[in-house]
Design goal:
This protein has a domain at about 30-60. It contains two helices and no strands. It has helices at about 1-15, 20-65. It is rod-shaped and about 95 Å long.
Length: about 80
Amino acid sequence: MMAWILLVLLLIAAAFGVLGLVVKATIFVVLTIVMSTIVLAYIAYALVKRQARKLADELDRRLQPPSQPPTQDFRY
């Protein structure tokens, strides 16, 4: 059903001689949506990568033995 509506709209645009303008506007809108999606996906990827790196560094720090022995023995 939607394809028929689009076809009718394209035929009307062609009849009035503004088909080129309609195609250019459609390309502009589609490319804007695609580029926005790509930029947002890259930002999300960078944020997830940064958080993963921070988590890995924190785990490495926690798993390393202390560099100096404790100054007091609390076992007694």
